[in-house]
Amino acid sequence: MSEAVADSATSRSAHPFAAPLRETRAEIAAIVCLVPLLLAVALWNRFPIIFYDTGAYVFEGLGGNFLVERSPVYSLFLRVAGGGLSLWCIVVVQALATAFAMVECARALAPRLSLGAFLALGTALVVATGLPWYAGEIEPDCFAAIAVLSLYVLTFHGGRLDRWRRSLLFGTAVLAVAVHLSHLMLATGLVAVLALYAAARRLAKADWQPPQLASPALVCVSGLVVILACNFLYTGQVFVSRAGPAFLFGRLLQDRIVMRLLDDTCPQSHYRLCAYKNVLPPSADGWMWGRDSPFQTLGRYAGTTDESQRIIGEALRRYPLLNMEMALGDTARQFVTFKTGDQVEPQEWALRPSLQAYIPTQVAAYMSARQQRGEFRFGTINRLHVAVGFLSLAGMALAIGVAIWRRRRETIVFLGFILVALIGNAFICGVLATPHDRYQSRLIWLVPFALALVLVERPSFALRGSRESVT
Predict the structure, then answer these.
(1) Which of 80, 115, 314, 363 could cross-link to 26 by cystine, CB 3.0-4.6 Å?
(2) Alpha carbons 383 and 110: distance in angstroms, whole number
(3) Where in the sequence is the domain holding 296, given as residue range(s)?
């Protein structure tokens, strides 16, 4: 009996939790068992986790009302995935997508990892990171990590996937990229880095792990098409976003660049904001959402976009070094800003009207949830989550160094891909918006997940079992 056949026979006779993920039965069991783990926080809460934006997504998706500042793709996802019946349908689909991406990544990198060990890893991530807070939240944030994992597998292991797995992973990646513009920008940036990696590989004539760029590039193109189509469906016009200038303006305002420009150019510039320069809010959130903000007075997006674009352009021309300094600082701050629970608090004043209007049968359950009762306490949680995040980042740096020393190319590529995604996310969110905990927290759990897979990775492993293609 060959070693492969003996290994297969042993796995069939062993306890089910000892079955390796490369086996289809273990793969399916891992996805099914991981879903309730990912929903542990929502189940404990007795209702999906709600963010301030949730009401707007319900209003847009179930009510058919276009909102400039909210992704129409995620709003329509709420409708298609059963949000009108129950918001539980949404978080179950999100948990399934997250579990699928995690399992396929684990099968590609550590196919001998047992079902039991994988579920133990999943349980550890649920306890020690913000993973379940995003999978169980009515918000597109959980899809950022799904996009990263899916793109990695399609790029470096897609050729070993069978047709149905590749197709399902591709579709998952397109949805993950399309549900929020920041995800599309992150994915596009990753593809650009992968193209540079492929070019360097060819120039150096090195035996580095070869990337397959067609699938990830097509994911980005498909995600863009979905965004354009959904915007057209709501408005009859083709565009990517109308909210970008307002968010970038808010960041420049918070970094005091707008105030410097107004001081240097008013009244000769004839900006309408010259009249408000002494009462501008100090923060981007105050500018965007404050009731007394000039943003509201001047007509929100429609009334401020043209002037915001002019101010952004002139500020970049006048103060290039200052802008670079602030952008680097905001990226660095965002990179290490990842507490769990950012603005997860009682929010019935923001959400209840939308629920009452479009899904009234869920209002009672929503109001009786622990979140609405103010029972969430993130102090203790973040003492663990933040510590795990920083220790994992340190571990990643050490692991990359060891992998370079030992010439473990696949490990270098995998951890490098995750690191580039973290840096890219920090830049996109920190510079084009403003640093917030949830932006980086939604991805930081990928670091301990990646390290765990690297630790169990074998120096040489087969991606095919004795009887089937495992991917």
Answers:
(1) 115
(2) 30
(3) 244-318
